[in-house]
Write a structure and sequence with these properties.
Blueprint lengths: L2 H11 L37 E5 L3 H13 L3 E5 L2 H10 L4 E5 L7 H11 L5 E5 L7 H7 L1 E5 L4 H18 L1
Parallel strand pairs: 1-2, 1-3, 3-4, 4-5
């Protein structure tokens, strides 16, 4: 997929993400206008910036998620595959896993299963463009927050806020 094709794909998957080359109608949400959270510190404890691990095999989507989540004030690390996510997870602590469902190699469920072996209560947000193929019983059983593509920026922000608030109450 060429750069223009990739940008059109991101615009379809996340229609409210502002992209300089996006030629469609702009719904009025621009990443530059979103309020930013100033990190207090990067060390564990109160005031620490939440760290997200984002796993998506599509580079344009992964880059867009990095930009969006950073604009929300989060410390974000991205992986292009399940294997890369496992390696990154072994090297640092993360507060939330944000993963795509359908990826080559290790899919989103396999990533979740492997990471929760080390951190059973790891909060997970699963992004997916799949509809009827989703096992909603498994989503509930695993305590996964499901976000369907296309997602809005306010929706993503609210999901992360709620997941992190629940994690704080869970500690």
């Amino acid at each position: 997929m060429g750069n223009a094709g990739a940008e059109r794909h991101v615009a379809r998957v996340f229609p409210y993400a502002a992209m300089d080359t996006y030629e469609g109608p702009r719904p009025g949400i621009d990443l530059a206008t979103l309020p930013r959270v100033n990190p207090v510190s990067r060390h564990p404890g109160p005031g620490r910036v939440p760290r997200l691990l984002v796993v998506d095999d599509e580079a344009p989507v992964r880059r867009m998620l990095l930009d969006v989540f950073r604009s929300f004030g989060y410390d974000v690390v991205a992986a292009a595959s399940g294997d890369e996510a496992l390696r990154l997870f072994a090297e640092a602590d993360y507060d939330v896993l944000v993963t795509d469902l359908l990826m080559p190699g290790m899919n989103g469920w396999e990533v979740i299963e492997r990471l929760r072996q080390a951190t059973p209560r790891l909060p997970v947000v699963m992004l997916t463009g799949s509809g009827p193929d989703i096992d909603l019983d498994r989503v509930r059983r695993e305590g996964v927050t499901l976000v369907h593509k296309p997602a809005t920026l306010p929706g993503l922000r609210a999901v992360l806020r709620d997941v992190l608030a629940a994690r704080g109450a869970d500690r």
